[in-house]
C-alpha cells in the first residue's frame, strides 16, 4: 500500500509538470512578467555595504577567583565579602545596549563622513538626505509627511529627552544598521555597520569602535579622574603656599642679614618653620597626586583591535541576479497553481456572474 501511494505521488508530480509544459506559452508569459517585475524591484532596491570590526577588551581576572570563592561560600551560608571596586557595571555583554542607546547614537550625528563621490557631510545629513528609498515606499512616506506635523530638525538643538520625529527615525534606522555581537566565552566583540555607501560604512564602523572604547574608559576611570582632579587642586594650593612661604623667608632673611636682635631671629625662625611645614604638605600632596595618577592608569582598560575597519569592495545585500531568478521561479510556481487549481474555479465564477 505504501509503495502504491509513493508511486501515485510521483505520477502526480510528473503529470503536473507535463501539463504545465504543454501550455509552455502561458508558462513563458508568467515567467516573463515575473522576470520584468524582478528586474524592476532589483534595480530599485539599493545596495548595502557592511564593514565589520573586531575588538578584544581587557577582562580583569583579579576578581574572578574572589567571585568563585564567594559563590562557594554562599552555598554553605558563609559571607566572605567582596571588593566593591572590582564590580564593573559595563561588561562586554551589555556593549550592544550601550551602542543602541539614544544618547550614544545622538553623539554620532555630527560625525563627518566622506562618501564614495568624495563629498563630505555629517552622518545625520547623509541619512536624512542621501538615503535611497525604493518606489514602493513613496506612498507611505508621502502620507506620513502629509499627516504629521512638520518639525524642523536642527543639529545644534538636539534634546535627548525630547527628540523630534525625524531624529527618532534616524535613531531607529541606525539601530537597524548596526550590529554588535559578543562572544560569551572569549568576550570578543564584533561590531558591523551597514550603509548604502561603502566609505561611509567603513568610517562609521571605525567611529563606533573608537567611541565605544572612549565610553568604557570614561566609565571605568570616572572615580579615579575625580580623585586626580581633587589632588591636583590640593597640590597646586600646597605649591603656591610653599612658594609664598619661601619668598617671605628669603626676603626676611636678606633684610636681617647683619641684624642680631633676638626678635628678628625669632621671626626668621617662625618663617622657616612655616616654610618647612608647607614644604612637607607640598611633598605629601605630590606623593598623593602621583598615587592618584598611577591608580588612574591602572584602572584605564586596554583594548586590542583584532580587525580594523576597511572599505568593503563588494555589496553585502542580496545579489540582484538572484532576486530576478527568485521572481522567475515564483512566476513558474504561480503558473502551475493557476493551471492546476485556480483557472477552472475562476472561470466558473465568471460564468455565474454573467448569468
Strand portion: 5-15%
- Helical residue percent band: 55-70%
Query: What is the rounded distance between the termini?
Result: 46 Å
Question: How many extended strands?
Answer: 6
- How is the largest sheet built, in terms of strand order? 4-5-1-6
Mean pLDDT: 80
Summed up, the helix count is 12
From N to C, what is the helix and strand string? HHEHHHEEHHHEEHHHEH
Please compute the radius of gyration using only Cα atoms.
37 Å
**What is the molecular shape?**
rod-shaped
Low-confidence stretches: 61-66, 69-87
Largest sheet: 4 strands, antiparallel
- Secondary-structure-based class equals alpha+beta
What's the quaternary structure here? Answer: single chain
